[in-house]
Each structure stands twice: as C-alpha cells, then as structure tokens.
C-alpha cells in the first residue's frame, strides 16, 4: 500500500496514527500541500478532490477521505479495534470523530484559509481569529463535554475518537488556540503523547517535516 501524505495535514496525521496503532507498514509518497502539489495532474488522477491523504492499495485502487481509509484499515486489521463492536460505544466514538472531521477541521483547512487570505483579502490576524473561533466555540468545547475519558476518549484503549482528536489539538496549538478550559482533552492528549503509535505519527517526526 502507498500513503499519499503531508506531514502537517490533520487528515493524513489521523491515518498515520491508525496505521501505527495497527502496526501496518506502507510506502510513503509525500504531497507538499503548501507548494500546491495536490493540484498537479498526476495526483488529481489519484484523488480528484486534490486532498491528502489518499491510500493506494496493491491492486491500484485508491481510497480517499481519512475516516473512510481508517474504517477500511479497521476491517482489514481488526486488532486493535478503533471503532468498538458495541453499537452504543461505536456511535459515541463516531460522533466525536465526525464532529472533529466534519464540523471543526474543514473550517480550518488550508484551502479555506487560503481563500480567506486570497479571494477575500483577510489579514493574518483575521484568519487566526477565524481558526481560533471555529476550533474552540462549538468545537473543542463541545468535544470536552462529549468524551468519557478512561484515560482515552472512551475507555482504556484508543479509538477513532482519539485518532481524530490528537491532530485537531495539534492544529489548535499551531494557531495559539486557548486550551486551558479543556482539562479532559488536555489529559487525553498527554496520555496519547506517551503512546508509541501517536508519537511516531507526530508531524515533527515525519520525513517531510519542515
């Protein structure tokens, strides 16, 4: 398998965590989003959305969207299970994962911020305010109330919720988002940081890190 990756992409970060948790080795192909490599024809032929990550299987099939890729990996290698077998716990885990991946992250995505800076002519100060507002208000503040730490988001083992939370916390810190009012999330983040799989997937430890 090949993972089309970018060290600072939150979505790619999620997939790296999942792969590391499952002990799966993949070939890495780096797509530099800041240089626009995701818009090159060769990459668009793989993923017409022009987004990272993408996972190319051995038969040439390409999977897109981080949560779809992770659920595929969870089926392919069901141990450790990232989406619980219990339907109620699975719904809670997916609820947090989707709140991050669908409601928080897209508003802080590079292409949105580039549009704010470029087409709408917003200053860096205004863009930073946008990021901090959408990351915190109705975002991470809500996640703080949804999780049930034990010590991960939902119990003693990491799940899809943790896989999504940690990259979002990293992104929030990049934009100096105040996090002091989120003690449960900070405790989960600290616990994950001590886990080898989360540590290995950290952006600073990637070959393409800058």
From TrEMBL:
The record's Pfam families line, in alphabetical order, gives: GST_C_2 (PF13410), GST_N (PF02798)
Query: Could you tell me which residue ranges the GST N-terminal domain spans?
Result: 1-81
Task: List, in alphabetical order, the Gene Ontology terms for molecular function in this entry.
Answer: glutathione transferase activity; maleylacetoacetate isomerase activity
Q: Name one GO biological process term.
A: L-phenylalanine catabolic process
Membrane-crossing segments per the record:
none
Report which superkingdom the organism of origin falls in: Bacteria
For this UniProt record, the keywords arranged alphabetically read as follows: Isomerase
**What sequence ranges are listed for the domain GST C-terminal?**
86-210
Q: InterPro entries of this UniProt entry?
A: Glutathione-S-Trfase_C-like, Glutathione-S-Trfase_C_sf, Glutathione_S-Trfase, Glutathione_S-Trfase_N, GST_Zeta, GST_Zeta_N, Thioredoxin-like_sf
Which GO terms of the cellular component aspect does the record hold?
cytoplasm
The similarity annotation says:
Belongs to the GST superfamily. Zeta family.
Q: Give the protein name, as stated in the record.
A: Maleylacetoacetate isomerase
Q: Which organism is it from?
A: Methylosinus trichosporium (strain ATCC 35070 / NCIMB 11131 / UNIQEM 75 / OB3b)
Gene assigned in the entry: maiA
């Amino acid at each position: 398998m090949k993972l089309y990756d970018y060290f600072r992409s939150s979505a790619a970060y999620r997939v790296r965590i999942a792969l590391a948790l499952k002990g799966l080795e993949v070939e890495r192909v780096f797509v530099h989003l800041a240089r626009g490599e995701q818009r090159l024809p060769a990459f668009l032929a793989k993923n017409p959305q022009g987004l990272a990550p993408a996972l190319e299987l051995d038969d040439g099939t390409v999977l897109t969207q981080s949560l779809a890729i992770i659920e595929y990996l969870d089926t392919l290698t069901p141990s450790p299970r990232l989406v619980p077998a219990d339907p109620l716990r699975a719904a809670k885990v997916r609820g947090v994962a989707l709140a991050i991946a669908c409601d928080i992250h897209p508003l802080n995505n590079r292409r949105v911020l580039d549009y704010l800076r470029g087409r709408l002519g917003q200053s860096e100060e205004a863009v930073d305010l946008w990021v901090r507002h959408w990351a915190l208000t109705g975002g991470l503040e809500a996640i703080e109330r949804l999780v049930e730490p034990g010590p991960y988001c939902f119990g003693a083992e990491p799940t899809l919720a943790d896989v999504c939370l940690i990259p979002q916390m990293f992104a929030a810190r990049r934009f100096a988002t105040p996090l002091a009012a989120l003690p449960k999330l900070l405790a989960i983040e600290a616990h994950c940081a001590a886990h080898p799989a989360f540590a290995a997937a950290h952006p600073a430890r990637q070959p393409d890190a800058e």
